[in-house]
Amino acid sequence: MAADLERLSKQFAASGNADIALGVSAWAPFARARGLETFSTTTAIPEWAIRLPDLTIGGKTPKQLEKALDSGGFKVGDWARDIIRSKDFTTLPDQQTLSLVRAKVSDLGFKDPATYSEVCQKAEEFGLEKCLPETAVHYRLAYKDQPMNEWLTVAMEPISDSNGHPSVFELYRPGDGLWLRGYWVYPASQWSPEAEFVFTLRK
What is the pLDDT of residues 134-150, one digit of tens each? Predict the structure, then answer.
């Protein structure tokens, strides 16, 4: 914030508003004393979006993540396992904490079914972004109290399964346990207005 105030002061001075520049710059030392160097760039959460607990990802290889799913008793679909074993599924070497939100397709303004591309493009307008692929695995490991029959699609760049089908991850809980599944994503694939997605909040 202090640096932002100093830049703003210079802009006012350059435009001939020296009195305003002086007033703005006077607040910079107070902001710096409180450790406020710049304004936060975190995007405000849309009022209809549900904020999820922060999630830490990274620090594990794909093989370690797959082993954690299996040892934890989670159900992993064949297509989901294909994604994890794909060369395109990469993980961060260091840990990183993400702010996640969930939203219905209808929250994004769609009254009728929408394609994956339409959903993701509209979400970006609200400051929501696709997740890194490993996010879904970490979220599956953490989300042990998922309600029965809840189905969440994790927005991400699709990764092809072993048959070449572009796929994304889903978290689902039917009667037989907590599932991580893969779901095919084609240009014509559509999600109903009630379908829910998980996004990363833009920083």
Answer: 999 999 999 999 999 99
Amino acid letter for position 197: F
Same domain, 98 and 163: yes
In the chain, the number of structural domains is: 2
Per-residue model confidence as pLDDT tens digits over 182-198: 999 999 999 999 999 99
Q: What is the pTM of this model?
A: 0.77
* 38 occurs within a structural domain: no
Domain span at residue 14?
A: 2-33
Strand partners, 97: 56
39-77 burial: b if 16+ Cβ within 10 Å, else e: eeeeeebbeebeebeebebbebebeebbeebeeeebbbb
